[in-house]
Amino acid sequence: xxxxxxxxxxxxxxxESRKTVESLAKELLLKPERISDFMDNKRVMPLKIAISIADxxxxxxxxxxxxxxxxxxxx
Length: 75
What we know:
By secondary structure, the chain is an alpha+beta fold. 47% of the residues lie in helices and 15% in strands. Strands 1-2 form a two-stranded antiparallel ribbon.
């Protein structure tokens, strides 16, 4: 099944993990602004960063975005 990315759920996952943008950025050696850009849907997380973020906050990579199933068009 194909999916489209919906909104980023990183803010919610950070709240659940009780981490801040600043602490996550420091841990991953990223600028806090980059993390905020992901949260504000200004940038899409590259897979390598999504894996690192998920590992740092204790969630699955798929939990970082809303996943919208694409319905195939019948011919």
